[in-house]
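Sequence, please.
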C-alpha cells in the first residue's frame, strides 16, 4: 500500500520490464490516462504481474493514493484479508468520514475484533468500503492495484465488486491481474468498474523471447537454441527464463536431437498430472512426445495397441488438446511434452526412437529416430543420415539438413570417407543457408581445431567469414591465415579472393579495389574449374560496376548470366539474378525488376534460403516503393525486418528499407527511429556502404517530418561518403533530389543548384531518366525561390507527366504536390501586370495521387497545406511563436495534433484531417500532456494564446 499526498509527474514507461508487451502496455496506459480501469489476464507465467508492476510504477504517480493487495492460494480462505491489505494503513484517514455503523463494521472486519461477517454486517460493510473509497478520492485520485484476483478471498471480492459498480464518476481506478487459461476473464469483471478494459497477455514470439533472455543475461545462446526454447516454452516468458537458466547452469549444451534440460521447477508444473496416468498411457505419451507429428496411426505402428483409450485418458487430464478435425495429436502445452521426454530414462527413450525408426512414414524422420536410437559410430546409420540431410536440403529445409548432418558426423567413424569433419562442414554450410550463422561459426571453429587438409581448412574459414555477415571487420585477422592455408591452389585461392573483394567493399569502402579482387577471383575460379565461385565473383563484379557507373557493367552482367549456370548461385542474393535485378531497377525498368525479384523470392523460399529471403523481400519492397505501391512496400519491408531480426541477418539493411517505407506509408517517428537503428548497425559493422544508405533514409524521413535542416545535415554526409567510396550512379540511393529540395527550403538555392548540376552529369551519362526527372523537379523549386514562378510551374507540369510515364507513382505525386504548393504561394503574391500562372491553385490532384499510392504521411501534408491556404510553407499562421517553441520537444505527429488543437479543432476534426482514428488522437494528446507538463486541451489553448499555465 502506498499513499501519496501530492500529485507527481508520471514517470516514463520502462520497456525493459515489458519486453514484447509494448503495444498492450501503451493501450493499458492510455486507458488509465483516460480515467478508466484495466484488467490483465492470461495463463500462469505469461507476465501479468510484471506488466502490472510496470503500469503501477508508470501511472501510480498520477494518483494521490495507491492501494495494493496481492492474494495467494494458501491464504484465499481467510476472509477480509485482501480488504485489510488495501485499507489497513489508511483506516485512520477515512474512519472519521464514515457513519458510526459503517466505521464499526469496517474496523471489525479489518482488525478481526467483533467477528464481523458478510451475513451479519453485509450492508454496513458494503457501504463502508464504498464510503472509504469516496473519502480517499475526495482528497485526490485513487488507484487500486490488485494482483492474482483468482486467489482473492470471497468476502473481499464481493465488497470490492459492490463498490466498483457504484463508484460512478468518483476518481477511483482499478488495475488488476487474474490468471485465466481461456477467455473466462469475464467472471472477474464484476469486481471491477463498468468501464474496465480487459487486456489478454498472449505468448511472446521468438524475437521477443530472445530479447528477454538477453536482458536477463542468459547469453550467448545460438539461434537454434533460442528456437528450441521458444518452442518448448510456448512463448511463455516465465517458462522461457527457467529454460534459459537451466541451460546457463548446465555444464554442456544439448547436442542435436537431444532435449533441452527442463528444470525441476517446470517439471513440477506438469508431472503431478502425469502421475495420474496409467503406466501404459504414459508410455504412449512418451512415443507421442518423441514423434515430430504424432498421430494415432503412428502410435499404432510403433506398437501402442490401445492408443485411442490412452490418449483419451491424457486428454481428460488436460495433457492433450482435443481437436476432432486435426489428425495429429497435440500436447496442451509444449512443456508437457518436453518434461515427459526429459523425465524418461535414456534407455526408454532409445527404445521409443527404435520403434519410431520403422513406424514413421517420412524417410527423414526414420533416419533421425534411427540415429537417436543408436549409440556409438555406425557407418550405415551415418550414410542414411547423410542421405536424409540431402533430401531435407532439396525440400528447402536447410535447418533440418544441418541437424541431420551433425547427427551423421556423430555416427561417422574417424577413418571413413567422407569423414566426420567433412559432414560437419556440410552441416555448417546448411546452417548458413538456414540463417543460423552462430551455429555455423561454432561448427567451423571446432573443425579448425583438428583439420590439417588445406581444402577442409579453407572450407571452414569460408564458413567463419560468411557467418560474420556485414561485420567483416571482426574477422579481418582471418585472411592472412586462410591465404596461407590456400597455398597456390587456384580453386582455393578463388574462394579467398572472392571474400577479399567483399572485404575491400565493406571494410575498406574501396569499390575499385573490390572490383579488381572480384575479377581476380573469377579468373582463378575459371582456372581451377570452380564454376560456382566464378559465377559468384562475376556477379559481385557486375554489382560493383553498376554502383560505380562503370561502362563495363552491362557486359559483366551478361558474363555472370552465361551458361552453364549453378542453381544455387542463380537464386543467391549475391548471385547473377540479383546483379541483373540491380541493373534493371537502376535503369528504370521497374516491371522487369519486379518480375525478376518475385521469381527469385519464390525460389529461395522453396529452398529455405533465409538470408536471401531477407534481402529479396527488401528488394521487392524497394521496387514497390519506387512504383508508388507504398502500402504494399510497407508490408514487405516490415516482413523483411521481422525475418531479419528473427534470424539476425541483414538487420541494418532491412531497417533502412523499412524506414523508407514507414516515411512513405506508415509512421514517420518510427521511420526516424529505424533509420538511426540502421545507421548504428552500419557504424558498428564498419560498413561505409550501408551507412550511406541508412543516412539517406534518415534524410528522407527528416524531410517528410518537416525538418529540412536535419535533412541537409544527413544528406551532406551521404554525399561525402559516396564520393569517398567512388559511387557515381545516382540511381543507387536516389537522395540527390531530396538534398536539393531541403537546401531550397533552408534558403540555400545556390548549393541546391550545384547538387543538381553535378548529379545531372552522371545521370545523363548513365541514362537514369527517373533521376533526371526528380532533379528537374528540384530545379523547379530553385527557380521558384529565385522568383521564376512561371518557368517553375511549366517545368513541374512536365516533370509530373514524365514520372507518371516512367511508373514512379510516389515521385509523380510529389511533383503534383510541389506544383500545387507553388501555385498556391504564387496566388498570394502581387501580380502587377503579369499574366496569371497556368492552372488553378488546387491540391486535389496531389491528394488523389498520394491516396492512390497509400502515402499517408504525404496525404497529411497535403491536407495541412490545403487547410492553411496560400501560406502552406511553414507552421500555420494562426499558431503563435510562443506555442511553436513549446512544441519543439514533441514528435512529428504530436506537433501536428497539438497545433490543430491550438486552432480549435475537435478530436474528430483532427482525426479526419490527419487520416487517423479518434482513439489515436486521444492517445497522442495524452503523450502531449505528459511531455508539456499540462493537464488538458485548455492548457494547449493557453499556450496558443501565449499565456503561462498554472
Amino acid at each position: 500500500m502506498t499513499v501519496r499526498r501530492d500529485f507527481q509527474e508520471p514517470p516514463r514507461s520502462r520497456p525493459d520490464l515489458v519486453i514484447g508487451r509494448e503495444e498492450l502496455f501503451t493501450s493499458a496506459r492510455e486507458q488509465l490516462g483516460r480515467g478508466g480501469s484495466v484488467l490483465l489476464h492470461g495463463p500462469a507465467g505469461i507476465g501479468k504481474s510484471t506488466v502490472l508492476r510496470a503500469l503501477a510504477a508508470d501511472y501510480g504517480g498520477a494518483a494521490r493514493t495507491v492501494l495494493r493487495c496481492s492474494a495467494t492460494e494458501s491464504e484465499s480462505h481467510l476472509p477480509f484479508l485482501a480488504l485489510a491489505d488495501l485499507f489497513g494503513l489508511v483506516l485512520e484517514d477515512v474512519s472519521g468520514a464514515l457513519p458510526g455503523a459503517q466505521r464499526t463494521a469496517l474496523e471489525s472486519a479489518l482488525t478481526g475484533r467483533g467477528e464481523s461477517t458478510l451475513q451479519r454486517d453485509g450492508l454496513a460493510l458494503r457501504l463502508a468500503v464504498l464510503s472509504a473509497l469516496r473519502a480517499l478520492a475526495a482528497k485526490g485520485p485513487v488507484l487500486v492495484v490488485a494482483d492474482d484476483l483468482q486467489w482473492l478471498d470471497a468476502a473481499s471480492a464481493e465488497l470490492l465488486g459492490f463498490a466498483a459498480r457504484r463508484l460512478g464518476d468518483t476518481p477511483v481506478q482499478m488495475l488488476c491481474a487474474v490468471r485465466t487459461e481461456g477467455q473466462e476473464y469475464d467472471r472477474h469483471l464484476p469486481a471491477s468498474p463498468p468501464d474496465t478494459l480487459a487486456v489478454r497477455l498472449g505468448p511472446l514470439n521468438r524475437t521477443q523471447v530472445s530479447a528477454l533472455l538477453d536482458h536477463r543475461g542468459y547469453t550467448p545462446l545460438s539461434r537454434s537454441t533460442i528456437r528450441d526454447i521458444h518452442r518448448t516454452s510456448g512463448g511463455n516468458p516465465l517458462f522461457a527464463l527457467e529454460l534459459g537458466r537451466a541451460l546457463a547452469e548446465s555444464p554442456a549444451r544439448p547436442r542435436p536431437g537431444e532435449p533441452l534440460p527442463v528444470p525441476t521447477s517446470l517439471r513440477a508444473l506438469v508431472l503431478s498430472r502425469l502421475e495420474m496416468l496409467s503406466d501404459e498411457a504414459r508410455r504412449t505419451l512418451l512415443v507421442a512426445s518423441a514423434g515430430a507429428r504424432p498421430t494415432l496411426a503412428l502410435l499404432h505402428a510403433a506398437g501402442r495397441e490401445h492408443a485411442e483409450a490412452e490418449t483419451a485418458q491424457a486428454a481428460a487430464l488436460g495433457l492433450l488438446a482435443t481437436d476432432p478435425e486435426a489428425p495429429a495429436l497435440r500436447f496442451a502445452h509444449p512443456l508437457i511434452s518436453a518434461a515427459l521426454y526429459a523425465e524418461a530414462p535414456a534407455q526408454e527413450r532409445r527404445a521409443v526412437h527404435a520403434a519410431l525408426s520403422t513406424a514413421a512414414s517420412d524417410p527423414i524422420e526414420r533416419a533421425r529416430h534411427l540415429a537417436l536410437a543408436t549409440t556409438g559410430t555406425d557407418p550405415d546409420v551415418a550414410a542414411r543420415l547423410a542421405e536424409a540431410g540431402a533430401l531435407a536440403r532439396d525440400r528447402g529445409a536447410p535447418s533440418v539438413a544441418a541437424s541431420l548432418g551433425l547427427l551423421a558426423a556423430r555416427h561417422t567413424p574417424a577413418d571413413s570417407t567422407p569423414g566426420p569433419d567433412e559432414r560437419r562442414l556440410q552441416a555448417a554450410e546448411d546452417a548458413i543457408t538456414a540463417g543460423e550463422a552462430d551455429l555455423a561459426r561454432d561448427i567451423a571453429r571446432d573443425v579448425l581445431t583438428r583439420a590439417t587438409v588445406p581444402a577442409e581448412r579453407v572450407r571452414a574459414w569460408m564458413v567463419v567469414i560468411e557467418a560474420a555477415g556485414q561485420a567483416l571487420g571482426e574477422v579481418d585477422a582471418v585472411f592472412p591465415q586462410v591465404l596461407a592455408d590456400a597455398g597456390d591452389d587456384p580453386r582455393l585461392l578463388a574462394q579467398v579472393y572472392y571474400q577479399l573483394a567483399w572485404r575491400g567493399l565493406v571494410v575498406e569502402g574501396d569499390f575499385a579495389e573490390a572490383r579488381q579482387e572480384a575479377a581476380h577471383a573469377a579468373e582463378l575460379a575459371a582456372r581451377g574449374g570452380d564454376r560456382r565461385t566464378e559465377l559468384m565473383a562475376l556477379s559481385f563484379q557486375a554489382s560493383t560496376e553498376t554502383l560505380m557507373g562503370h561502362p563495363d557493367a552491362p557486359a559483366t552482367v551478361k558474363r555472370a548470366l552465361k551458361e552453364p549456370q549453378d542453381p544455387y548461385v542463380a537464386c543467391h542474393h549475391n548471385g547473377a539474378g540479383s546483379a541483373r535485378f540491380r541493373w534493371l531497377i537502376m535503369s528504370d525498368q521497374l516491371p522487369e525488376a519486379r518480375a525478376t525479384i518475385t521469381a527469385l523470392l519464390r525460389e529461395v523460399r522453396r529452398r529455405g534460403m533465409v538470408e536471401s529471403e531477407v534481402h529479396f523481400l527488401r528488394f521487392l519492397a524497394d521496387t514497390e516503393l519506387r512504383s508508388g505501391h507504398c502500402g504494399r512496400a510497407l508490408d514487405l519491408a516490415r516482413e523483411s525486418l521481422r525475418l531479419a531480426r528473427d534470424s539476425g541477418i541483414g538487420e541494418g539493411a532491412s531497417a533502412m528499407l523499412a524506414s523508407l517505407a514507414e516515411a512513405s506509408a506508415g509512421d514517420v517517428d518510427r521511420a526516424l527511429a529505424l533509420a538511426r537503428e540502421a545507421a548504428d548497425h552500419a557504424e558498428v559493422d564498419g560498413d561505409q556502404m550501408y551507412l550511406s544508405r541508412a543516412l539517406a533514409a534518415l534524410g528522407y524521413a527528416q524531410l517528410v517530418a518537416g525538418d529540412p535542416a536535419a535533412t541537409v545535415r544527413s544528406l551532406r554526409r551521404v554525399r561525402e561518403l559516396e564520393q569517398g567510396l567512388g559511387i557515381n550512379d545516382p540511381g543507387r540511393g536516389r537522395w540527390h533530389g531530396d538534398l536539393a529540395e531541403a537546401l531550397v527550403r533552408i534558403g540555400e538555392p545556390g548549393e541546391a543548384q550545384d547538387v543538381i548540376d553535378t548529379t545531372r552529369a552522371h545521370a545523363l551519362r548513365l541514362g537514369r531518366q527517373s533521376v533526371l526527372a526528380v532533379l528537374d523537379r528540384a530545379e523547379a523549386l530553385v527557380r521558384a525561390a529565385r522568383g521564376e514562378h512561371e518557368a517553375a510551374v511549366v517545368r513541374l507540369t512536365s516533370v509530373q507527366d514524365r514520372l507518371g510515364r516512367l511508373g514512379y507513382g510516389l515521385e509523380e505525386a510529389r511533383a503534383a504536390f510541389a506544383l500545387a504548393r507553388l501555385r498556391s504561394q504564387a496566388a498570394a503574391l502581387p501580380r502587377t501586370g503579369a499574366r496569371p500562372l497556368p492552372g488553378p491553385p488546387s491540391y486535389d490532384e496531389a491528394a488523389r495521387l498520394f491516396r492512390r499510392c497509400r502515402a499517408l504521411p504525404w496525404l497529411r501534408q497535403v491536407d495541412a497545406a490545403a487547410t492553411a491556404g496560400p501560406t502552406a510553407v511553414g507552421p500555420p499562421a494562426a499558431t503563435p511563436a510562443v506555442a511553436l517553441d513549446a512544441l519543439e520537444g514533441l514528435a512529428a505527429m504530436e506537433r501536428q495534433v497539438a497545433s490543430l488543437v491550438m486552432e480549435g479543432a475537435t478530436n474528430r476534426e483532427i482525426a479526419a484531417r490527419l487520416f487517423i482514428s479518434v482513439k489515436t488522437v486521444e492517445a497522442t494528446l495524452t503523450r502531449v500532456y505528459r511531455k508539456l507538463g499540462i493537464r488538458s486541451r485548455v492548457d494547449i489553448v493557453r499556450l496558443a494564446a501565449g499565456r503561462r499555465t498554472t
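The longest strand covers residues 172-179.
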